[in-house]
Every structure is written in structure tokens, then in C-alpha cells.
């Protein structure tokens, strides 16, 4: 009995040692020479493999970063400035802190404001729907509501609001990786800077139809009237193809455009106080009055 | 039961030819027509009239915008009111020429009489030029410019002309009525096509559910004395009228992936196109009208109407009594490959062949459930593909996998979705996948071309 | 007028649905069910009832409470699993053994994979094999059936069981098979699980399914052909050790397995040649297990083994694409 046990132990031990030796030799022979910094960089990456940086995953980003002469083209939106600082430290590069971005859904065509005019019965995908026709509302540019953006988000930051039929971005979870921007066939979602303390202004409409057509389809549409562009004292707003656009780099968050917009297409988010439209309008009127008087003098 | 049929797949929807007894009647002309400049495959045509111009029926109002393009003629006489964007039947804006109708004056030189002209001109080049000037495009639904199809690339040889009289889509009967009422013109058109392609044999393929048409055309061929034209009775099966399937059924040759029918020696033209060829060559009449079947069980008055190009769909529907209460979906075309109409004010184009009204019960899709791996979709696919696999690959956006499994060969016939017991929207996703693969193939070809040119320098 | 429906083409659909196909299978099983109840009596009815009820209830409970999705029992696939499981066990099996079998069949072999369409192995067979291995006494005791109308039936073990035991004791095959005649096997009131008897009722159901275009006959026919051929070869070599082809075709649940288990959509290959190879594999493995294995019956194991390589068969044997070599 004992001899069996001894033999078993001996055989298994020898077998284990032989195999370990074989594995070691093979690992040495077929080892791929790699820059050890790639591993180091990969360790500090968030590990989401979301592709937001433009590379095929965190390891691919690390490989590219190690090869690159500087970190200008390599930025990880998920890890943000913290991660980039760590990567810069490992590689000995300098990196500029970038303003944090967030996904913004530029459509406010809710079920109430934008009535449905037909009944879509195909597969529930925005890409399928947009390939077929202009959508089940009167607006040919607005959100189709099937949630391709929600499916594309790997961080759970997007969800469909059943009351409005529009996607909602959870700012805490959004990493600005850009997957939703690519997924939306109507190009409604845009990555915009989060803004100081999260405050930002944007035009929540991408409808390029002429004003009356847009308004007929959706009560919240931008009608391209241009009042916002005329009001803005920072030259931040342009109106092209019957729709206004606020340049986030120039916008100073004064909210005057939002007050003057006749359809309420301009939105301000995360402001501490609600907008007092009358007060702002009065202030604008006063300023414009003073300017006229100054011009007449 | 005919044994002439294609070799892979196919389904048997009920043929529902409830409008087959309706002779083709001309529809009174609408007060305004909107003629699209993008009614064919290839470059959109360029308008050559201006607002305020007076035009006659058959007058050129838009010229070809490229090599693969076609002339577009006014279908009415009147004044050009506007040229600008107007939503098509999917709601997308495309340029339309709006003409306010005044009278019905035809351009001089067009033979509007009923006289049958049986003598075919001998100059093939002149014939093709007349077809080109007549704005003739494939009226089987694809609207490919016919003069381009009849001018195959050097090195390819046509061995047979096939006239497609199958009309395999359920409900549609306009081709059937054309065969019965204008059989002589169709046969002469076939003879013209046959001659132009090198005096090759010609087969007029008609599905066996149209025995009257088969008999009539046989009589017409005998009466007119044309040699080398035969009628083939095809098994009733969808998609018998699909170009690749028809060539397989008639010539037992399969067109390769990405290749054209001429590569196996075939030229296929629809019955309505043969009629248009007769009109263009023998009567100098360009395409200004086409026959449209208006049908559906819930539609009270079945009809086959001769409609001028550019007529708003709402005008046609109102003429026949309006959209029925029970109609839940309006389709331009047949139930398998037609397009659901989102915009009833859209105007007809050369390729409009039918207006079909389906009830909620007939057309509402059932909820999707798990794939049970029954394989009915693969059995049904006439291209021998595996839709259950392509659907999954398309949903995962696996473009390489889609190309490896031949998604680009899909003819979008709808047999897969039709047969799926789990009601999975297979074709919806495969269509997107096919588009991605074709885009990738085009990008590769463009990159290869650019690389080749860079290498030359 | 209410809003128009807009969708991509096609705009019509065939009458087939998962439910209609499964219902056809249930109808095809009715002759066999009737036969088994007539031969085995009310106890068989109880076995059937318990099996179907527990399979359906289990699927309903899992979809509702665990998966929190709409219930899928409406597609009748759980009913089929219940019937097949009941036809695969002796009529004297206690109810709680059957419930355990259902839990394994539906709960483990079907729902853990994601529900219908996602499982690799035939659920009824997994349940049956689990019971065979866990409760061998219940599963291999064949009592004399009373029959519904008190019909006299032959008692004792299944024909295959008898043959195997007899061979081990040294008798020759000819001595053993002389006790049976083929019409008994075909119309069958011999001992066995309910599904082993009445091959004719099962074949009637199979023909019904083929006519209704629910299944295609390739898989079943290739199983029969392979079983017949293999057994013919071996029997010709040594008739004393190996049973003859007809005996093998008619006994031991081959007909039930070939007609209803191997043809299950989810666990069988999609293409024609894949199905033929699948059938050949099942037939061959069945005969090997019967002739050389320690179990008298091989169909269940053979089918489960071939189920494992179905994804590979689907990859190797694709149907010919139009216009390609």
C-alpha cells in the first residue's frame, strides 16, 4: 500500500518538474520582445477597452503611446487628466490637461412637442429606421428614439426616457468616449465641454428645414430666426442651414440667447438659479438702447 | 405543374391576383404633376427647362447626368411651375419639376395612334440611340437605364434575351394585363431587343398562373411570324422574376457574386420595358406613363390604371375612393419587396408598378422571439445564404464575417423574414450589413486604385 | 384614419410561427401517447400529466421570476419536452422522480442556456439520461403493464435488456430473439418505456411532420439506414453475438429517438449534408453502444454526443451559395 503511495508521489512530482521545465523553455524560446513600458502604461489605463481614444483597446493605446514622440494625439477620455498625467510620468512626456467633455443630445422633440405621424413597425434600431425613411414624425432630422446610442454606450450612461422618447445622458457616468456619437445615424449627439461647474449652453435642435416647416413638425424646433446670433455679444452663435449653433469655445454662459429664443430651442443645464427671462430681456433691451443712443450721438 | 424554376430556395406566398380581370384604364390626368429627376439607377438627371416654360407631352425636361443616367420627359402639357426639392415616398427631399397641366398636347413626331408597326429598323445603333432618347429604363422595378444594359462591355457576348413576364410578386397584375392587351407590342419589343443583342434566341418567361397570357403570346408570336422567340411557362414560385433566379431557371446558369448577367450571356428585360422599347423605337414615344395595379383585399375597387409619370399618389387613391378605413399600410410595389409609403403626397415615378393596401391583420409584425434554429430561412433563401447567421453578424457589426458569409449577394427578396417562425426581423438587419460590406468593398477598390495610381507615378 | 404603418419590406408573413410548428409536433406525438396509455393504463396518464405539468410550470416560473421576461410557455416547446420525457421513462416511475427529471430537462438543459433556441443538448434526453444515471432502479424496472382495458402484455425487461443479459449468460442471439416476433415489436406490447413501444404510431407521427413540412426526413432516414447497415455488417459476421437489423430498428426507442429527438430543430444541424452526417453519427454510435457498450440502449447517449458537435457540423456543411463554386 505504502509503496503505491510513494510511487504515485514520485511519478507525479517528476512529471510536474519535467512539464514545468518544458513550459519554461518554450516560454523563453517564443517570448516576444516588448518594451516593458507598454505593460506599465497599460496598468494605469482604466481597462474599459471602449475605443474612445481611437485605438483598439487599452493595450493598443499603450503600444501607440510608447511609440509616439509625444502625447498630443493620444488622449484617454475615460481616464481623463488623471490617467494621462500618470502615462506622461511613465513615458517622460508632457501632457496638457484637457477640458472634460460630455455627450450632449441635441434634440428636444419630445412625444408631446413632436407628434408621431406614422407607425414604425420595423426592427427597433435607429440605423434601420433612418435607412428606410425620414422617421415617424414630421421632422426629418430629429431623434428616432430606438436607442442605438443607449446600446452603444459601454458605461451605462445613456437611457431612454419613456415619457419624452429621447435619450438622457448621466453626466456622472459619461466618459465622452464618443461611441454614442458614432452610433447615432442622425448626428444628433455631440461631445461638448462639460463647462465650469458643469454649466453649458447648447442649441437642442439639428433641424435644417426652413422655420415654418420645422415649427410645424416640432414645437421645440430651432426655426433659424437668428435672434440668438444677433443678441450674442461674444460672437459665439452662427446660423447655418436654418439652424443655430453655439460654439462652446466662445460661449460665456450669459444665457441671453436662451432668454431671447422664441421656441425655447436653446437649453442651459446645471445652472444654480433658474433663468429669469424677463430680467434678462430687460437688460438686453437696455443695452441695445444705450448702443443706439451712442450710435446716434 | 411547370418544372422550369430556379434551383435554390424560394417561398410560396398566395398569389392573390385579385385584380387580374381589371383591364388597364387610363387615369384622368391630375391637375399638377411632380416629375422627379432621380427616377433611375445612376446619376440624377439635370433639368433643362426653366420655371415658366411651356412644355408638351414627350418633351425632354431633364438630360442624363452621367453615363449611367437617363432622359426624363414631360408626361403632360402645361407650364413649369417650380423646380425644387419635394419629399419622395420615404419623406426624403429630391428635386422635382412641377408642371401645371393645360390640355394634353403631345410633341410633334410622336405617333399616338394605335397602329401596330411590325417592321423593325435594321440599324442597331440607331435603335439603341432611340431607346436612350426615349428615357427607357428597366420597368421591372430596378430602373436601370436600358440603353446601358443593351451596350455590354467589349468582350462580353449575349447568348439569350429573356423577357420577364413572371410578375412573381403577389397582388400585381399590370404585367399580366399588358401581355393580354398589348401582347403584339410586347412581342415586337422583344424582337427589337433580340435583334439588337445580335439576333440571339429570345425567351418570354411567364409564370404558370397566367395561362391566358401564355396562350395569347404564343398566338401573337405565330401570327407575327417572328422566329427565335419562344414562350416558357415557369413554375409559380417567388422570386421567379428575380433577374438571377430567372436566368438560372431559363438558361441553367448562375450569375456569379458581384457579376452582371451579361457575364453568363443573358440580358433580361421586363415585359413593360419591352413595351417601352416598342414605343420608343416604333412610335417615337418616350416613357410618359406606366401601368399601376391598385389592389388589396380591403380596397373596394381593384384597378389597373395607366398613370402619367409624376402623378401624386393621393390623386390616384382619391380617384378610386380614398384610403379604405381598414387599410393599415400603403405599399408602392408588391408585398415582398415594395416600399411602405410614409408620404401619400409623393408622386409616381417610372418604376411605380403598384399601390397595395394591406390591413392590420395582414401586415402587422408579430413580436420577435428566440431563434429556434429551424433553418427555414436558409431553406427559403434563393441565393443559398444563411440569414440566421447574417442577422447575428449584422447585429454584432461584424463586417468581415458578413463578407465571408456573402451578405453582399443578398437580393433583399424578403423570403427569409417571410418564413421565420420566430418573426425575427432578419432582412432589416441583413440589409444594413449588406450595405456595410458593399461600402467596405468599394473602399478597398478605391484604395487599391489610388495605390495603383500612386505606384504608377 | 389612424396612422399608417411603415416598415422595411417584406410586408407579409407566412402562417408559420414557433407555436404552430410545436403544435404540429404535439399532434404528431398523439398516436404514440394514445398507444402508451392504452397499453400501460392510467399510471401512464399520470406520468404524462406530471411530466408535462412540471415542465410547463417550471419554464413559466423561471421566465417570470428569475429572468423577469415575458413567459415563453405559449410556444408549446415545454409541452413537447414533457411528453418526450414521459415517453422515455417506465410508467411506474414515481412522480417525484419525474419532477426531478423535468427540473433537469427544462431548468438545466434549456433555461440555463437562455431558453429555447440556445441549448446545445436535447432537453428531454438530458433529463432522461440524468434520471437513468441517478435512479437506475426506477428507470430499469419494467413491470407487467395492466393496460387501459386490461389488455394482456408481455412482462419483463425490454427486449434489448433481455438480449444483453442473455448474451452475458452465454446464450446466443438466435435463441434469445426467437422469443419475439417482429409484429410484436412493430405494434408492440412488449416491455419497455412507453416510447419504445408502438413504432407504428411513432412512424405515423413522423410522416405527418414530413407532410406538413415541419421537419425534413434526412436525419431520420440516415439514422435508420446507418443502424440497418451497421447491424447488417456485424450480424453477417457473427449472428450469434449480434442482433439483426430489423430487431435493432424496432427496439429500444430508436424510432422515438430518430423521429422526434434527433429532429429537434435547436439541437440538429441546419443543412442537408450536416443532417445526414449527424444521422450517420447517431446510428453508428447507437450500434456501438448496443453491441459493445455496457448499456443495453444507446440512442439517448448517441444523440447527446452528436448534439455536441452540431456547431461544428453547421460550420463544415453549409448549403451551396448561388453563383459560387
Concise structural overview:
Chain A has 297 residues and is an alpha+beta fold. Chain A has helices at 2-29, 36-44, 58-67, 80-91, 126-132, 148-152, 179-183, 211-217, 227-231, 256-260, 277-296, and strands at 101-105, 118-120, 158-161, 166-169, 189-193, 200-203, 237-240, 243-246, 266-269.
List the helices and strands and how they pair.
The complex is a heterotrimer of chains A (297), B (457) and C (325).
Chain A: H1 2-29, H2 36-44, H3 58-67, H4 80-91, E1 101-105, E2 118-120, H5 126-132, H6 148-152, E3 158-161, E4 166-169, H7 179-183, E5 189-193, E6 200-203, H8 211-217, H9 227-231, E7 237-240, E8 243-246, H10 256-260, E9 266-269, H11 277-296
Antiparallel strand pairs in A: 1-5, 3-4, 6-9, 7-8
Chain B: E1 24-26, E2 32-36, E3 46-47, E4 54-55, E5 60-63, E6 72-73, E7 78-87, E8 93-101, H1 124-133, H2 146-149, E9 160-165, H3 174-181, H4 183-196, E10 202-207, H5 211-224, E11 229-234, H6 243-251, E12 266-270, H7 271-282, E13 289-295, E14 303-308, H8 313-319, E15 327-332, E16 339-340, E17 354-359, H9 360-363, H10 376-380, H11 387-395, H12 399-404, H13 415-419, H14 426-456
Parallel strand pairs in B: 1-14, 9-10, 9-12, 10-11, 13-17
Antiparallel strand pairs in B: 2-8, 3-5, 4-7, 5-6, 7-8, 13-14, 15-16, 15-17
Helix pairs in contact in B: 1-7, 3-5, 4-5, 4-7, 11-14
Chain C: E1 4-6, H1 18-40, H2 42-66, H3 77-87, H4 95-108, H5 123-134, H6 136-140, H7 159-169, H8 173-177, H9 182-187, H10 199-211, H11 218-237, H12 245-250, H13 254-261, H14 272-292, H15 299-308, H16 310-316
Amino acid at each position: 500500500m505504502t509503496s503505491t503511495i510513494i510511487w504515485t508521489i514520485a511519478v507525479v512530482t517528476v512529471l510536474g518538474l519535467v512539464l514545468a521545465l518544458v513550459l519554461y523553455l518554450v516560454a523563453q524560446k517564443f517570448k516576444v520582445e516588448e518594451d516593458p513600458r507598454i505593460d506599465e502604461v497599460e496598468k494605469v489605463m482604466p481597462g474599459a477597452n471602449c475605443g474612445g481614444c481611437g485605438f483598439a483597446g487599452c493595450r493598443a493605446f499603450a503600444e501607440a503611446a510608447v511609440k509616439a514622440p509625444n502625447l498630443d494625439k493620444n488622449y484617454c477620455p475615460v481616464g481623463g487628466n488623471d490617467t494621462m498625467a500618470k502615462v506622461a510620468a511613465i513615458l517622460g512626456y508632457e501632457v496638457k490637461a484637457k477640458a472634460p467633455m460630455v455627450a450632449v443630445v441635441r434634440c428636444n422633440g419630445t412625444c408631446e412637442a413632436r407628434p408621431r405621424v406614422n407607425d414604425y413597425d420595423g426592427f427597433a434600431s435607429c440605423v434601420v429606421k433612418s435607412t428606410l425613411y425620414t422617421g415617424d414624425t414630421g421632422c426629418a432630422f430629429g431623434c428616432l428614439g430606438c436607442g442605438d446610442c443607449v446600446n452603444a454606450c459601454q458605461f451605462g450612461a445613456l437611457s431612454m426616457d419613456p415619457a419624452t422618447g429621447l435619450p438622457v445622458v448621466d453626466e456622472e457616468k459619461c466618459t465622452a468616449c464618443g461611441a454614442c456619437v458614432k452610433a447615432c445615424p442622425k448626428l444628433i449627439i455631440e461631445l461638448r465641454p462639460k463647462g465650469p461647474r458643469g454649466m453649458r449652453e447648447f442649441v437642442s435642435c439639428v433641424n435644417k428645414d426652413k422655420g415654418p416647416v420645422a415649427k410645424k413638425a416640432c414645437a421645440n424646433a430651432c426655426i433659424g430666426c437668428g435672434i440668438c446670433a444677433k443678441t450674442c455679444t461674444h460672437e459665439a452663435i452662427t446660423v447655418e442651414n436654418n439652424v443655430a449653433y453655439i460654439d462652446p469655445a466662445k460661449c460665456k454662459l450669459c444665457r441671453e440667447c436662451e432668454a431671447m429664443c422664441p421656441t425655447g430651442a436653446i437649453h442651459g443645464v446645471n445652472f444654480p438659479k433658474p433663468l429669469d427671462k424677463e430680467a434678462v430681456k430687460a437688460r438686453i433691451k437696455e443695452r441695445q438702447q444705450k448702443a443706439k443712443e451712442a450710435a446716434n450721438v | 405543374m411547370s418544372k422550369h424554376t430556379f434551383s435554390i430556395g424560394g417561398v410560396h406566398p398566395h398569389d392573390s391576383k385579385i385584380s387580374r380581370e381589371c383591364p388597364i384604364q387610363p387615369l384622368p390626368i391630375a391637375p399638377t404633376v411632380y416629375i422627379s429627376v432621380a427616377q433611375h439607377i445612376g446619376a440624377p438627371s439635370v433639368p433643362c427647362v426653366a420655371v415658366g416654360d411651356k412644355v408638351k407631352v414627350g418633351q425632354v425636361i431633364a438630360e442624363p447626368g452621367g453615363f449611367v443616367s437617363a432622359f426624363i420627359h414631360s408626361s403632360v402639357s402645361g407650364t413649369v411651375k417650380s423646380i425644387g426639392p419635394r419629399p419622395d415616398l420615404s419623406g426624403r427631399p429630391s428635386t422635382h419639376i412641377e408642371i401645371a397641366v393645360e390640355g394634353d398636347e403631345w410633341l410633334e413626331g410622336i405617333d399616338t395612334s394605335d397602329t401596330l408597326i411590325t417592321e423593325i429598323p435594321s440599324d442597331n445603333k440607331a435603335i439603341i440611340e432611340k431607346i436612350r432618347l426615349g428615357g427607357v429604363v428597366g420597368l421591372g422595378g430596378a430602373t436601370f437605364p436600358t440603353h446601358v444594359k443593351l451596350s455590354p462591355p467589349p468582350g462580353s457576348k449575349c447568348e439569350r434575351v429573356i423577357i420577364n413576364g413572371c410578375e412573381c410578386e403577389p397582388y400585381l397584375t399590370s404585367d399580366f394585363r399588358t401581355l393580354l392587351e398589348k401582347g403584339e407590342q410586347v412581342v415586337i419589343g422583344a424582337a427589337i431587343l433580340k435583334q439588337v443583342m445580335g439576333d440571339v434566341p429570345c425567351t418570354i418567361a411567364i409564370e404558370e398562373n397566367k395561362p391566358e397570357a401564355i396562350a395569347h403570346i404564343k398566338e401573337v408570336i405565330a401570327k407575327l411570324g417572328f422566329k427565335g422567340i419562344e414562350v416558357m411557362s415557369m413554375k409559380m414560385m417567388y422570386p421567379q422574376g428575380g433577374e438571377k433566379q430567372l436566368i438560372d431557371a431559363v438558361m441553367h446558369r448562375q450569375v456569379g457574386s458581384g457579376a452582371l448577367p451579361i457575364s453568363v450571356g443573358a440580358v433580361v428585360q421586363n415585359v413593360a420595358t419591352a413595351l417601352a422599347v416598342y414605343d420608343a423605337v416604333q412610335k417615337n414615344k418616350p416613357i410618359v406613363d406606366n401601368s399601376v395595379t391598385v389592389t388589396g383585399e380591403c380596397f373596394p375597387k381593384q384597378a389597373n390604371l395607366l398613370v402619367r409619370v409624376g402623378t401624386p399618389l393621393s390623386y390616384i387613391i382619391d380617384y378610386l375612393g380614398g384610403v379604405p378605413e381598414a387599410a393599415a399600410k400603403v405599399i408602392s410595389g408588391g408585398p415582398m419587396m415594395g416600399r411602405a409609403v410614409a408620404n401619400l403626397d409623393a408622386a409616381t415615378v417610372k418604376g411605380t408598378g403598384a399601390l397595395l393596401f394591406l390591413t392590420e391583420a395582414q401586415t402587422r409584425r408579430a413580436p420577435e422571439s428566440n431563434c429556434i434554429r429551424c433553418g427555414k430561412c436558409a431553406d427559403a433563401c434563393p441565393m443559398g445564404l444563411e440569414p440566421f447567421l447574417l442577422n447575428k453578424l449584422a447585429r454584432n457589426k461584424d463586417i468581415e464575417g458578413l463578407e465571408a458569409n456573402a451578405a453582399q449577394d443578398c437580393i433583399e427578396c424578403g423570403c427569409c423574414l417571410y418564413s421565420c417562425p420566430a418573426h425575427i426581423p432578419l432582412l432589416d438587419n441583413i440589409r444594413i450589413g449588406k450595405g456595410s460590406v458593399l461600402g467596405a468593398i468599394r473602399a478597398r477598390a478605391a484604395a487599391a486604385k489610388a495605390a495603383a495610381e500612386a505606384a504608377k507615378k | 384614419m389612424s396612422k399608417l404603418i411603415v416598415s422595411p419590406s417584406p410586408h407579409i408573413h407566412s402562417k408559420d410561427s414557433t407555436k404552430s410548428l410545436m403544435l404540429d409536433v404535439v399532434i404528431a406525438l398523439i398516436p404514440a401517447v394514445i398507444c402508451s396509455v392504452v397499453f400501460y393504463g392510467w399510471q401512464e396518464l399520470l406520468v404524462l400529466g406530471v411530466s408535462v405539468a412540471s415542465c410547463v410550470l417550471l419554464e413559466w416560473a423561471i421566465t417570470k421570476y428569475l429572468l423577469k421576461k415575458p413567459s415563453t410557455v405559449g410556444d408549446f416547446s415545454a409541452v413537447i419536452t414533457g411528453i418526450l420525457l414521459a415517453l422515455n421513462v417506465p410508467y411506474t416511475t414515481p412522480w417525484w422522480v419525474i419532477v426531478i427529471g423535468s427540473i433537469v430537462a427544462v431548468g438545466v438543459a434549456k433555461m440555463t442556456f437562455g431558453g429555447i433556441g440556445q441549448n446545445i443538448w436535447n432537453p428531454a434526453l438530458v433529463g432522461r439520461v440524468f434520471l437513468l444515471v441517478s435512479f437506475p432502479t426506477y428507470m430499469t424496472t419494467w413491470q407487467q403493464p395492466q393496460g387501459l382495458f386490461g389488455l394482456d402484455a408481455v412482462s419483463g425487461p425490454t427486449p434489448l435488456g433481455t438480449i444483453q443479459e442473455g448474451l452475458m449468460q452465454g446464450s446466443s442471439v438466435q435463441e434469445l430473439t426467437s422469443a419475439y416476433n417482429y409484429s410484436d415489436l412493430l405494434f408492440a406490447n412488449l416491455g419497455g418505456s412507453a416510447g419504445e413501444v408502438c413504432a407504428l404510431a411513432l412512424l405515423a407521427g413522423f410522416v405527418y411532420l414530413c407532410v406538413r413540412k415541419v421537419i425534413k426526413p434526412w436525419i431520420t432516414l440516415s439514422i435508420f439506414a446507418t443502424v440497418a447497415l451497421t447491424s447488417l455488417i456485424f450480424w453477417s459476421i457473427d449472428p450469434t453475438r449480434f442482433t439483426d437489423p430489423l430487431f435493432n430498428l424496432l427496439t429500444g426507442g430508436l424510432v422515438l429517438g430518430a423521429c422526434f429527438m434527433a429532429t429537434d430543430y435547436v439541437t440538429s444541424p441546419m443543412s442537408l449534408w450536416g443532417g445526414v452526417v449527424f444521422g450517420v453519427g447517431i446510428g453508428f454510435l447507437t450500434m456501438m453502444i448496443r453491441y459493445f457498450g455496457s448499456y443495453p440502449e444507446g440512442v439517448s447517449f448517441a444523440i447527446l454526443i452528436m448534439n455536441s458537435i452540431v456547431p461544428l457540423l453547421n460550420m463544415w456543411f453549409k448549403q451551396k451559395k448561388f453563383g459560387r463554386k
